[in-house]
Structure formats: C-alpha cells, structure tokens
Amino acid sequence: MTDALLTRVVQWLPKDIPKLSSGVLSGSIDYLGDGRITANLTANNVAFADASGLHAGEKIGLSLQARAQSGTHGLSWNAALTWSAGEVFWQPLYLKAQKQRLTAAGRFDGKALHVESGLLHYPGVGDTEFSAAYDLAAKKVSAARVTAREIDVTTFYDSLLKPFVAGTSFSDLRVEGRISADVWMDMRGLRGADVQLSRVSFEDKTRRRFALFDVNGRVPWRAQQTTQAHIVAKGGELLKMPLGAFELPLEMNGPRFALKQLRVPLLDGHVSVRDFVARSDRVGGEWQFTGGIEAVSMARFTAALGLPVMHGTLAVQLPMVRHVKSLLRVNGALSLKVFDGMIEANNLVLLDVFGKAPRAQADISMKNLDLGLVTRTYSFGSITGRIDASVSGLELVNWQPVKFDVSLMSSAGEYPRKISQAAVQNISALGGAGAAAAIQRSVLRFFDQFGYDRLGWSCKLENDVCEMGGIENAPQGYMIVKGGGIPAITVMGYNRQVSWDELLNRLKRVTQGNVKPVIQ
After folding, report:
1. Does the chain have fewer CB atoms within 10 Å around its N or its C terminus?
2. Helices 421-431 and 434-441, interaxial angle, to 10°?
3. How far apart are CA 445 and CA 452, in angstroms?
4. pLDDT per residue as tens digits for the range 448-466
5. How far apart are CA 224 and CA 347, in angstroms?
6. pTM of the full structure
7. pLDDT single digits (tens) 220-254
8. Measured between alpha carbons, how far is 387 from 377 in angstroms, rounded to an integer?
9. CA-CA distance, 145 to 320, in Å (whole number)?
10. Within 10 Å of residue 97's Cβ, how many Cβ atoms?
11. Alpha-carbon distance 482 to 489, whole Å?
C-alpha cells in the first residue's frame, strides 16, 4: 500500500471526533498463516480539526510497527508508535513532534485489554513506564501503574504543565530539578504514590512573589494508610524577602494532610504555621491553620519590600485562617504589633488568592502608633506623638486599592507633640502648599520644629477619586495640623478631591524627598 488517502475512511469514523482533512498512509499489514499478524505503517501530512477549533493538528508524521499472535491465553501483542513530524493543539496543550516514542506490549483475553509493559519516551523530559488493564464490561480501567524516573522539571513545566496553570499564580515560573514518581490505582481509584524530589527549585519570574530553592525529599502517599513525608528546602523568597532553610514533616492519610508545626526563618525572625490541616474531595478542597510572624525587623522588612525604611519590630498573630475553594477567610482579628502600637485587621477575606487578579476585603484599625517610628524615613521629616487610624471597607483588586474610607487622628493622652519643618512641607504637599509658603514668608523659617495640638487626615476612595478631609473644616479647605505651643504652626489642605494616581504621585514625591518649598 502506497500513499492511500486517509480521507476515504472519514465516513466510517465516529462523528464526535475531530475530522480528518488530509493525510496519506503507506506500508503493509501481513498475515503469516500461523496466527501471527504484523503491521508496518507510515502516515504523512495528516491534518485534522474539530468545529470548535480546540483540537487540531497539521503536517503530522507517524510510524507504527505492530505484531499480534493468538494463543491459549488470548491475543498477545506489541506495538511501537513514533511521532516524527507536525504539531498538535489539544486544548490547552500545544505540542510539536520531537520523535516522541510510545512502545507497549500486552494481551487481549476477550474480557479485558492488558498492557503488561509500556514506555513513553519524551525527548528532553524523560521516560515513563506504565502498565494497565481495561475492563470491557465495566468500561473502565481496573488497574494501572505509572513510573517516571528523573523527569526534568524545566522541560516538563514548559512543555506540558504550563498550559494547565494559565491564569494562576503559577503561570510564569522558572523551574529546575528532577522528579521521580511511582503512582498506582485499582477499580476504587488512586491507591498510592511515591514522589521523590531532587534539587527542585521554582520561583515567580515576573513578579517575584514566591520562590523555593533546592527542595529535596520523599512523599509516600497512601489512600488508606498514615504516612510521613519528609521534605527539606534550603531557602526561598516571599514577596522578595529571603526565607531560610526549613523542614516540612507532613503527615498524610488519604485525602487528609496535616502539619503540627512549621517554623520558617524570615529575615531576622520567623514565620510560624501551627495545626495545618488540608482535606480534598471530588467537589474541591479546603485547608486551615493558625500561626504568625515572630520578631521581624521593620527596617529589614520594609527595605525588602521596596518601601520607605521604617523602624521597630513586626509581630503578627494569625487566628484561624481557612481556605475553601477560591475563598480565604481569617476567622477573628489579625493582630500586628508594630510601631510600638497595635494594628488589627477584621473581616479579612481574600478571593481567588492564587489567580491572576486576587481580591481582598478588610476593616483595619490602628491604635497608639508611635509617629516617631512611622515617620523615621530618609526624607519625610520627623513627627513625635501618637496616632490612631481606621480603614473601613477596604477593597483591593490585584493588591491595588479600589475602595476604602481611611481616617488618621492624634491619639488621646499626654505625650510630646513636635513636627519638623520638613514634615510640615511634606504634609502640606498632599493638600496644598500653603503651610510651606507661610513658613518661608515669616520668622517661622528660622525654626526646625513646631508644636502642634492635634493632627488628622481622611480619604474616602471611590471611583479612583480620593475625597480628602482633616480634623475640622475651614472656610477655604480643611485643617490637617492644628498648632499648639511655641512656636506653633497650622497646616491646611485645599484640595478636597484628588485622583488616586495623583495622590500616589504626591506621596511618592514627598517620600523621595522631592518636595520643594513654595516661596511667594
């Protein structure tokens, strides 16, 4: 047989599979007279597609060598299929021919099709051995085992895994290392898996939100038996902050995964996870834990995040955190001890946290923060005192604020209240340059610090516009700082409405020291 048109068999093929549009078949099928059949076939320039466009291939070249022989135990067979040319799109996979080769041998006894040995050779990725049995009466796989050794993680992710994680936080990773796996199942489903990790690393290439480096270990999972995984990582990153080495003693039993305690070094402190439990089922999965952040230097924390350097110690207590499907909820108040005060987040909810556009909602309160620690940056200036703040109805989309109502006010009580000339100029720049101009026009320009009685500022963000206010209204604006003591100064704001982008630009200029006094 030479160059037989494959399109001639279209009418006998099932209607619900992609339609052949071209291709030729050459080769031979021989019956040897003693129950043996051999086939040597080659297909070239094969093309197919379905109406949706989600399954298509073109210029495909395949070669098949097969043998079969009848015997007392049924029909024994072996076959080898090589993909030598062309490309295939099978949503979401796009694959090119790289001389992938599939070999298999087995038997057919009339009740089941047995694949007693099989091997998939995928250049650049590795070799995968398999065996299986398909029950014809039940129309399902009754047993199967797949063993992959030393799979190259880089090629496996780029060629096969990446399309399945598109639109998630794992869609653009740099990965390396090798993985071996042995997986088996029976009529009841998946029964066990042994996974070996060898120097596996991965990191978020574009945004650098997370990374783990040099991960080694073994994960022996069983469907109906308690087992212990042992995984060791030499380090990593979280939001560009370095993580130290840690061990992950994960306990597993079927769909349940548990971790009693985990401590991961973060900068000069630790992240702790306690009583982690995860469960999965056919509908989805859920997990929960408690934990916190212990004694992390705010100076190192803010520097790592690219924020103005602040001082003090960051400590976070996490109550019960629970994730169900795409919803992550913190049950209770998330507490942070920072700036010698307390910050609490209530009603914290995160949606699609591992997707491309995560959303978050929360209400935040801040009590008795030390303004000296808050403002001790390179260029903002110095303010001594205490401040309370509330952020209600906070909504973030892709970690960017789209809605909130924030209010900052001086804390009650007796404490020193001083504000530097540089801080006055920077605060004034947020709502108008009146205070800076007043300083330059008067004897106040000879003073480095001023007294104040109260300070406060508010912003209600909605539809990309910030509606601003202060501690009280004034005929031409609103008061941000009310003077008190000698010398005293009052800072006024004049712009009630400012676009969010413009306000961010103003904040960026003042924190970078680019605000210049206006002299009139």
Report:
1. C
2. 140
3. 16
4. 788 889 999 999 999 999 9
5. 38
6. 0.72
7. 999 999 999 999 999 999 888 899 999 999 999 99
8. 17
9. 39
10. 17
11. 7
